[in-house]
Amino acid sequence: MYFYIFDPGTDKEAKYFEKIQGQLLNYLAELKVEGETYRVTSIRTVELLVEQAINGEARTIVVVGSDSSLDRAINVVLTKRADITLGFIPLQPQSSLGKILGISTDIQEATQTLAGRLGKSLNLGKINEHYFLTQVDLGEPLTVGTDPGFFGWGGVRSLMKLSPFPLKLSLENSYTATSEVLTAQIINCRDNQGSRVKVGDPTDGLLDILLLNPMSSAQLFRHRKELLAGKFQDLPGSTIMHAKKIQILGPKKLPLSISGQVYAKAPAEVAVAREKIKVTLTLRPSASA
Amino acid sequence: MARKDEYQSGAPETIVGATVKIEGDLVSEGDIKVDGLVAGKIKTSKNLFGGPMAKIEADVEAQNAILSGIVKGDIKIKDSLVINETGKVEGNLACARLSIAEGAHFTGSCTMPEKEGDLKQQLSENEE
User: Fold this and answer.
1) I want to staple A87 with a disulfide (CB 3.0 to 4.6 A). Which of A53, A54, A99, A280 is the partner?
2) What's the CATH class of domain A130-273?
């Protein structure tokens, strides 16, 4: 049975959301994937509704909302150890999870993906007790996806404000890596569109570690496009390592964040979770090329 | 979602940047490229590339290796070892095929089997 959780978020106008919800319900009925529908409110949170669906013996929970809505649903499903397949219909035009899973932000196409029922088990990363599908930013996260301004100057200015720090990691309890970095990422899964080097395969059982070396202003400007897209792997001199378990040893109190929200501070451990999540997705080449 | 064939052949490549210092056992199933400092041990079933700025103070095991920087340690290569003109190697070599460019430094002994299979067998026995 399908269980739909509609999360309008905080910035959606009620009329706009109701229009989308109406369209979506029509598509779901056309494709014969309709089910119970619930709407998130200030009292009925994503977490509560996912728990309700699990208790109601739902087999598939479809989150209609933002990346954050899906992330919250994933955490409840895994914490409850429920045998559930998750579907996702992104409402944000810049949804990174939508891009990763190859799900269009066009509601009709997203519904077709759902109706295709192509399910796949994906690895997750875990930081403390929080599961993540995408990546952890170490230190000040770059303002990825924002408007870089005229000729990229706005973005470069924000990059120049970053101060290098001495990062120390222990990987697999086998070796330590130390380096002065501007920022670093631990990636489980990412949208590789436009990247030469592909990282973040959520089926290889590894996390990819990217370290960005300190750069001169000229280098920052030259590589602003890759930097502002968060794709350090394409930059000359970047470090790429792979591990199942990473301990962030220092500097102490270094913030570790997911989608801009801090979940832990160093020293901390990030690892591939034992649990996997089943999601419906599309394997269209355009989603990942 | 990214397809598997978009990733580098087999396991992904490890790149140790010029500012990075690694201490311990760097073990990988994929290619390793070193431009920084590695102290301890490097082991891969694929290829090792040591850049001109690399400083490797480690015993090395790999399928093939191309070294352009400094290496201090014993090197066991199952197939081909190339030391470029900027390379400086101090240690004992064991490999099936060896190429040392003019200008390269090499101090140590070198063992090469008459048949290629002999070295692979010898290395396998050592691993056991």
Assistant:
1) A280
2) mainly beta
**CA A60 remoteness from chain centre:** 20
- Give the closest-approach CA distance of B23 to chain A in angstroms: 5
Domain boundaries, chain A: 2-117, 130-273
Write out chain A's pLDDT in tens, 289 residues.
Answer: 789 999 887 655 566 777 888 888 888 888 888 888 898 988 899 999 999 999 988 889 999 988 889 999 999 999 999 899 999 998 888 888 888 888 888 888 888 888 887 888 999 999 988 999 999 999 877 655 555 555 566 667 777 788 899 999 999 999 999 999 988 999 998 888 778 888 888 989 999 999 998 888 888 888 888 887 777 888 888 899 999 999 999 899 999 998 888 999 999 999 999 999 998 876 543 333 3
Among A199, A239, A281, select the one facing B17 at the smallest CB separation: A239
Q: CA nearest A133: which of A186, A60, A194, A82?
A: A186
Residue B72 forms part of a structural domain: yes
Q: What is the ipTM of this complex?
A: 0.83
Q: Pick from A198, A209, A235, A238 the residue to mutate for testing the B interface (most B CBs within 10 Å).
A: A198
Q: Is residue B79 part of a domain?
A: yes
Residue B1 and residue A120: Cβ atoms within 8 Å? yes
Say if residue B117 is exposed, middle or buried (CB neighbours under 10 Å; 0-12, 13-18, 19+): exposed
Q: Domain containing B70: what range?
A: 4-118
**Any idea which fold A2-117 has?**
Rossmann fold (3.40.50)
pTM of the model: 0.86
